[in-house]
Amino acid sequence: MGYCFMTTSPLKTNQAVQYSYQHNMREITVRNADPSRRHLNEEVVAIDGGKGILDVLHEKEDYRNACRDHKMRSDATKMIEVMMTLSREDAKKIDLGSWKQKNVEWLRETFNVSPDGKDNVVSVIYHADESTIHMHALVVPMDGDGEFRASRWTDKRSDLIRLQNTYAEKMKPLGLDRGLRRSVASHKDIRRFYTDLDKRISVEKNMEIVPGETLEQYQARMIDYVKNLQAINMREVYEKDRQITELKTEMKEFKRGHSFDEKVQMQVKAKQLEKEKEKWQGLERTYGSVKNIEEKIQTSQLLNDALVNCENTELRDSVLENIRVLMKQEEERQKREKQLEKQRKFEEEIKRGF
After folding, report:
1. Quick one: residue 339, left, alpha or beta (phi over 0 = left, psi -120 to 50 = alpha)?
2. In sequence order, which residues have a C-beta less than 8 Å from that of residue 126 and are 6 or more positions away?
3. What are residue 124's DSSP bridge partners?
4. Cα–Cα dist 139/125, whole Å
5. Where are the alpha helices (DSSP H) in the chain?
6. DSSP code string of 255-278
């Protein structure tokens, strides 16, 4: 099952509302957006009658002022910006039309409570010109009393958890589950997690030279192998981070009434996950940093270029054969070293026993 999540941001001034709308409509330059893909964006919910975003806001404010006998607070939230997204890999598996429709349905079911009978969800834009598809919605936080009261939806942590839960429930028919539960991670951390999650790919397990395979082909396959291994390692590490984050948050939220044994069990589980994470990080220690891998690839590339450009075919074939022999010898040497290391540790244990 894939993952989805949503976030909310308060817009407290007319300028903030105008800027967000221009950003969403690509009326200003957006650094992370690809202009060649802008045609893939879509205005899912548009403002009626050729009005501007501030025109719609002022109409809502006029209605509010007519209903209330006091001025609106100067620090009141004018609009709530809601961002909804899912991982890139999952976007390729679901019906995007249904996903857009269910997002709009959830927005209206959640925020349309104002007594003026008009839509609080005034703008919804779908973006496909950035690395991960997502939707931005601009919502007027008018409650059932005709007041601008964003706290009805976003006042407490429990309110935000409720939004995440109802959103996930709406997305469940599409095969999507909610993201980090009760997370203490920031929005940037969550976005990075889903970006890294998109890097999952399968690994070629056979590291030996295939009969008839040229050195150039072998080099290309090994480069792919290292990259794939690092990608899968990163995915596993972040999956453990996700589970650890949830557990740590649950521990922080433990209140009176929970037994000592329950707290101990949760701490034990968190330690087990930390050990799992260390195991996967060991892969990176084995293969070295990205810089070291790049240096090895450059050396291999130089050797490959020298062989490709060698006009003496007998010399080239001889070098290739010698490389195969050396690789076999190195493999046997490493096996011997592992056996000696194992024997050494065994002898040390015997000595400590006496």
Report:
1. alpha
2. 41, 42, 43, 44, 100, 133, 134, 135
3. 45, 137
4. 12
5. 14-24, 53-67, 88-91, 96-111, 151-154, 157-171, 187-197, 215-252, 260-287, 290-308, 313-353
6. -TT--HHHHHHHHHHHHHHHHHHH
Sequence-distant (≥ 6) Cβ neighbours of residue 6 within 8 angstroms = 82, 83, 84, 85, 163, 164, 167
Half-sphere exposure of 153 (CA within 13 A, CB side): 30
pTM (predicted TM-score): 0.55
Question: Partners of 127 in the beta sheet?
Answer: 134
d(CA 54, CA 40) in angstroms, rounded, equals: 26
Beta bridge partners, 294, equal: none
Which two structure tokens, joined as six digits, stand for 246?
Answer: 């949830």
For residue range 30-79, list pLDDT tens digits in order: 877 889 999 999 999 999 877 899 999 999 999 999 888 888 888 899 99
210: nearest Cα among 324, 315, 314, 317: 324
Which token pair is 146?
């005709």
Cα–Cα distance measured from residue 237 to residue 231, given in angstroms and rounded to the nearest whole number: 10
Sign of the torsion angle spanned by Cα atoms 210, 215, 221, 225: positive
Pairing of strands 176-178, 2-11: parallel
Q: Do the beta carbons of residue 201 and residue 192 sit within 8 Å?
A: no
- Name residues whose C-beta falls within 8 Å of residue 262's C-beta, 6 or more positions apart in sequence: 254
